[in-house]
Amino acid sequence: MAHELTAPARTSQDRHPAPPDRPDWWRDAVIYQVYVRSFADSDGDGIGDLRGVRERLPHLAGLGVDAVWLTPFYVSPQADGGYDVADHRAVDPVFGELADADELVRAAHELGLRVIVDVVPNHTSDRHPWFQEALAGTGRDRYHFRPGKGPDGSLPPNDWESVFGGPAWTRVPDGSWYLHLFAPQQPDLNWENEEVRAEFASVLRFWLDLGVDGFRVDVAHGMVKAPGLPDIGHREQARLIGAQRLPFFDQDGVHEIHRDWRRLLDSYGGQRIAVAEAWAPTPERIALYVRPDELHQAFNFPYLRCPWEADALRAVIDASLRATASVGAPATWVLSNHDVVRHATRLGGLRRARAAALLMLALPGSAYLYQGEELGLPEVTDLPDELRQDPAFHRGEGQEGLRDGCRVPIPWTPDGPSYGFGPGGSWLPQPEGWGSLSVAAQTGDPASTLELYRTALAVRRGHPALGAGGPVEWLPVPRGLLAFRRVARGGGVVCVANTTDRAVELPRPGGPGGRPLLTSDAEGETAPGDGPDGPADTVVAAPDSCSWWAI
Questions:
Q1: Catalytic residue among 218, 294, 374, 390
Q2: Is 331 exposed, middle or buried (0-12, 13-18, 19+ CB in 10 A)?
Q3: How far apart (Å, rounded) are the C-alpha atoms in residues 64 and 28?
Q4: In the annotation, is 386 catalytic?
Q5: Catalytic residue status for 218
Q6: pLDDT at residue 322 above 90?
C-alpha cells in the first residue's frame, strides 16, 4: 500500500477486555446489526456516527443482545454505503475518528457486549491507493484488468454482469477493462496475488489488536474467480445468485482463504469469530463455509427469503439444521438486514413480524436482529427519487433502490427534529408518525413490540431449552401451523406458530402442565378457558401468532 497505519499501542484486548468468556458464546448469540449511518447521530449533521452508536449502547444492553455488528465506517467515497473502502484502517470523518472506534469497543465491553465489524475483501473503492496506482499503470495484478474483445477491444472481456445491473466491466483510457461485480466504483481484487492476501491479514490484525471480537465477511463467496473467467451465457445473472454456482461466486478456492483467516482468529485466543455473507445454491454448499477449520457462522439467506407459510418454513428449518449439524456448526436465523425490505412489510404486517420474531428466537443457534425491527418498523416506501442513494436505483437497474427504504434513520423519541436520531435532521426523511414507534414511546408498554423483544430475549437467555438448548422435535398440528418441542436438562419449551389468518383450536401444548410463557399476540389470549378450575384442555392459536409454552 501507499501508506501503513498502526493500531493503538497495546496488545489485543488488554486495554478493553471482552466480556467474561462464555465458551463458544457465538453458537447461540443474539447479534444486533447497526447500520451506522442510520442508528444515532451525535453531531447534528443528519448522519449517524460512532459516537452516536456508543451513546446508545445501553439500549442494546437493555434489549438483551450479546453482540453488536457495525456496518462499514471506514474511509470511503460512499458510492455504496461504505462498502467501497478506500482505507481499511481509518474511520471516515463522517463517522468520527479512530479514537471513537476505540472508545466504542471499550464501552461495549463494559456493558457486556461484543463488537463485530465488517471486512470487505472482494473489492476496494476506486479511490483506494492501490487502484489509483493501477490506473497509473503499476500494480494492476492486484485487480482484474483484461483487454477487451473485438478487433478494437471495445467489447467487455466476457459476459459477466454487475449485481447492480449492466456489464461487470468498465473500460479505462488506455483501452483495457477492469472487473467490478458491484458498482464501477468497486473494482474487484485479485486474490491470486499474494500481496492482497498479506494486506487483508494485516487489516484483520489491526482491528483485532484494537479489541474487536470478530468480523462479518462481506461477499465471502466472492474473492476467487474461475480460471479463464469464462462466459456464463445467460442474462439477468443477478437472479442466478444463490440459485446456481457462477464462475465469479462460490468457487472452491475461497475456502483456502477462510481457513487462513480461521487460523489467524484462533491465534487471538479462540473467542474471536468470523461470519460469512455467503450465497450458495444449497444448504450443503453454505455449510462448507462453516466447517470446523473455516468460519464460525454463515448467514441463512434461505430462511430470510422464506415466506410466512408453515410448510415452507419447516422445510427451510429442517434443511438448515441438517446442513449445519453435518459440519458441527450452529445454524443462524435472520429476518431483516440493510439490503432487504423490512420483514414487517415483506411478510405482510406487524402481526406476522412479531410472530416470526418469536419463531426465530425459539430455534437453536444464533439469531441476528436488524436495527429497528425491535420497534416493529415497516419499510419506508415513499421516499422521493431524488433523495434515494442506492447505486442500483440510480443506474435504473438491479434492486430498484429498495435498500434505501430499510435504511431510514430509526426513531428514539416521540418528537424532535429527527425523533431523537440526532440534534438535526436525518439523511433520509423519516415518515410522519415515526415517533409513535420510537424507543421512548414503546418502553413500558407491555403490548409494544419493543417490550415483546425484551421479554423474549430475557426468556431465551434464561431458559435452558432455548438458545443452544435442546434439538427441535416436531409435533403434529393442523395444516398451516408449526409446533416443535425443545427439551434440555432443567426444562422444556413448546413453540407454536400459526401462519394462517384464522384462529385454530388445538390441544394444550405440553399437556395439562403446559404453562404459557410468551405470545406474539398483543391481546395475550393464548389459553382461553383457564380459570379457577384449572387449565383448559385446549387452547386457541390466534391468527398470525406464535407462542412459547413451558413444559
A1: 218
A2: buried
A3: 13
A4: no
A5: yes
A6: yes
